[in-house]
Write a structure and sequence with these properties.
This protein has four domains: about 1-130, Immunoglobulins (Immunoglobulin-like), CATH 2.60.40; about 130-320, Rossmann fold (3-Layer(aba) Sandwich), CATH 3.40.50; about 365-420, no CATH class; about 535-680 and about 715-725, no CATH class. Mean pLDDT is about 85; it is low at about 1-10, about 325-340 and about 725-733. By secondary structure, the chain is of the alpha+beta class. A hairpin with a 2-residue loop joins strand 19 (about 275-285) and strand 20 (about 290-295). The protein has a nine-stranded mixed sheet.
Length: about 725
Amino acid sequence: CASILSARIASASPIATIQGTPTVGWKGNYLVGRWARVVVPVHVDTVGTDGVLLNLSSQITAIDPGGHRVRFLSPTQSLGPGDHLLEGLIKVGRLNGDLEIRLARDDGTQEAMLTGVAGKSDWVPLPLLPATRLIVTVGKPAGFESIASSVSAGLQVKVVEIEASDLPTNGLAFDGVYSLVIAGTADLQPGQIDALQAWVAAGGRLIISLPTDQAAARKALPEWVPVRIAEQPITVREFGGLEAFSGKNLRIPQTSSLTIPKLEIDSGEVLAASRANPFLVRVPSGIGSVAVLAMDLTTSPLKDWKGLTPFCARLTGNSQNSDSIEKGVNKGINKGAQLSSTGITDLSTQIHAIQDHFDEVKRVSPWFAMIGLLGLLLIIGPLDYLIVHRLLKRPHWTWITFPLFVVGTSVVASALANSSNGRSFRANQLNIVNVDVSSNSVHARHYLSLYSPQTVQTSLTMEPVSLIKDPQQKPVGRISWEGVPEATFGGMLREKGLEQGALYEQPANGELNQIPIMQWSSKSLVGDSISSAEGLVECQLRATPAGSLTGTILHRFATPIEDWMIVYQNRVYRQLKSRDDPRSIPLKQEQVWRVEQPSVFQRELRPYLTGILTMATPRFGARAASDPAHQHSSYDSLSLDPLNVIRILTFHDEVGGERYTGLTNQMLHDQDCSQLIKLGRAVLFGRIDQPLATLRQDQQVLIPDREASFVRLILPVYKSGELMNDLKRVVPD
């Protein structure tokens, strides 16, 4: 009877199969080393009573940079009979790695499985390189489809057109997107809007093209975007602002006036306007930005404009006129860049090298190993011959002395290896905290490097620490593997070999279960966390008509902010004991700090960060005349000083980008605050001595050997005109 009952239960249970082709990334476009969404079409069938629900989840296995297999687990869903779409998130660490999809019940029973190899299976295309700028468009805007063929030489751009319904509801799925363009009357769901907001706040770039109808424009503009649509539209007769922005002398084919929504902003920059009425603006949001165009890219006259492609290229930062290109991101124009053969080509690789350096691990140099091998050859060769043959006259004793030499050398080498490589588990941690004062939000990036003296598989969790007391919501975060955009050992740009690494899991809650670490090697990890900053920073900064910064700042971190500076426009503000003092006075907590102080000194940003010195040299043949000579210090790509590296990362484009550093910024371009300075924000950069995340290894707290934390405060700055507008809104005429 028991067997008959179990057979009935089994026959009545649903059966799930993979129907159709899974989709990886944005219609098959995804970047190596970035999070990507995987959509799996599933059909659930039932045998017996209808309405039986199946608790099912997708488990997707990919390869990490070290050749190990990581299984990404998605949340369990209850599915009834019919067709469904299961979504999951993955990170691919190799260019031609394998992918495996499993459908599993909540009890671990496997329902279906599908495997593929990148570039060989139809449903698994090759991932894009980290240098690729992925542009995703929604609503079929014109002008973007030809960007890839019109951008500067050396740039790799990929444009993908999707439907509004295909936008994900998880902000992490936007990772790897360089710019997202939404045009026309795209109807987005609340979950999609929230995901967009989270992505922009973490550094994303959103472009919105509004319909010309006033009511439709209000509906198309999300409430969280800091751009207002005025009550009355405006009539535009001159489009010279857009034509000038495109950088091409091509007229917009509009013979009559056009009525469009009127845009109003409190901060940001006006990119194009008709007289005093802006119709193309860019505003800051978190550490990202939103560009809003009060004209529809899906209809005339812009749709028929011959200069639309260069306009779209510049709007997304991919033209010769864009600031990033002018400052040297394109290798083709960096003739003055420093040539380097250090094996470090990207800022993320340099941060990886900093984290991978453990002071307690004293590795022997290659020269020491070569000298040791030479000494061993001398011992087992000439020395053994001299002792056994010449002195002892016992040639057959070589059968004894040779094994003794080998065993002795092995013992010495083993002892030396144990002493130089260490005998304890170690960890390094580096934190970058972005505090947006306007939205009272914190987005933090945590870089972790673990070193093990023996081969282990361990479980890791990261618990973000709240920066404020009694937060309403607990900080949330996740941790995953980290790779570098290099073709060297452990890099993501090398192809998968014959290695078969261990298997570990990453559940949906962001933990890592049974991650392998080889003996005397390290494992690089990266974590992200989001928390509230309510009451953490109080800021009352204003800009004078001359562009100088005034006002006050108060912070409530647990420790003072050290080695700090405030950057506004192209000026650096530091409080020093004397003008030539290299270190700033610590900015104490719970104390109001004012900009207008005699001890606050100003300097231009680029000369300060690049070490430029201007010296007057006598002109040949003239006594009183002289010519200015500029000298600057070269950037050290081998430096292990995290303060200097993170400071350059924060203002990478402002200091000249790749032209100055000789390094690209492919993986961390969303951590560059240069664009925020152009949008009217002030950025306070400094170092704090405060724990920001707790790492647990097998449920035990792991205390890092070295921890460095850097904070970037994104501060709003009011201008005189904005203050008058605020007064007018409060006290009408």
